[in-house]
């Protein structure tokens, strides 16, 4: 079983294209944070934690906007905890990674629906959805080819969570625009990074 935070960091790096976590204080700090939070629920199956994250994201769609913002952030925490729980249980697997990725894509859609309900223009949300799809496709393509992913862009999922939560609290259009712009730019950065190898 993986019981060390350093082992968990190494495992996360391996599952994210060999990304060197020592390059980013934010990434390293986040992973250590969710590792600590995962301790009390280490006996809970990681898939159940992922499913709970989907439920909190669904609740964000129908909740009042301020409560919805909190639920978006809670989803992000659960998304980090599920992987840490899997490592604590010594049970990370390809199936678990698939469950996690599927939950991520479902919750991405739910966050956009929450912004739509709060008043973000549908045209902007379609662009945001396309940007998310392109960015995640670039990452998936790199992983499928065994290529290291060494770039973290402002369009990555933790940032998208922050844009969605901020948009719900203040300006839904601005949140949607931030997701659209950063994911499209991030997809281009990853494409160029892969092309130039």
Describe the structure.
With 197 residues, the chain is mostly helical. It is built from eight helices and no strands. The chain has a single domain, classed as CDP-alcohol phosphotransferase transmembrane (TM) domain (Four Helix Bundle (Hemerythrin (Met), subunit A), Up-down Bundle), CATH 1.20.120.1760. α1 crosses α4, α4 runs antiparallel to α7 and α7 packs antiparallel against α8.
Summary of the model, kept short:
The protein has 197 residues and is an all-alpha fold.
Q: What number is the mean pLDDT?
A: 89
Give the SSE order as H and E letters: HHHHHHHH
Write down the domain tally.
Answer: 1
State the secondary-structure class.
mainly alpha
Beta-strand content: under 5%
Percent range for helical residues? over 70%
Strands, total number: 0
Report the top-level CATH class: Mainly Alpha
Shape: globular
Distance between the termini: 36 Å
Rounded Rg:
16 Å
Please outline the major beta sheet.
none
CATH third-tier fold name? Four Helix Bundle (Hemerythrin (Met), subunit A)
Q: In terms of per-residue confidence, which ranges show pLDDT below 50 for 5 or more consecutive residues?
A: none
């Amino acid at each position: 079983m993986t019981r060390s935070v350093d082992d968990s960091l190494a495992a996360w790096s391996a599952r994210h294209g060999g990304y060197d976590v020592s390059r980013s204080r934010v990434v390293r700090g986040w992973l250590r944070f969710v590792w600590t939070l995962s301790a009390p629920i280490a006996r809970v199956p990681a898939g159940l934690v992922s499913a709970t994250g989907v439920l909190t994201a669904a609740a964000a769609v129908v909740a009042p906007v301020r409560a919805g913002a909190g639920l978006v952030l809670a989803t992000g925490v659960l998304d980090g905890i599920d992987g840490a729980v899997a490592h604590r249980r010594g049970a990370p697997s390809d199936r678990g990674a698939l469950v996690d990725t599927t939950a991520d894509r479902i919750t991405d859609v739910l966050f956009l629906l929450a912004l739509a309900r709060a008043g973000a223009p549908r045209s902007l949300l379609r662009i945001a959805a396309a940007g998310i799809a392109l960015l995640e496709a670039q990452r998936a393509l790199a992983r499928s080819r065994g290529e290291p992913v060494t770039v973290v862009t402002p369009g990555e999922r933790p940032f998208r969570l922050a844009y969605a939560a901020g948009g719900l609290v203040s300006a839904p259009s601005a949140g949607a625009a931030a997701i659209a712009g950063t994911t499209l730019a991030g997809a281009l950065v990853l494409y160029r990074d892969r092309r130039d190898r």
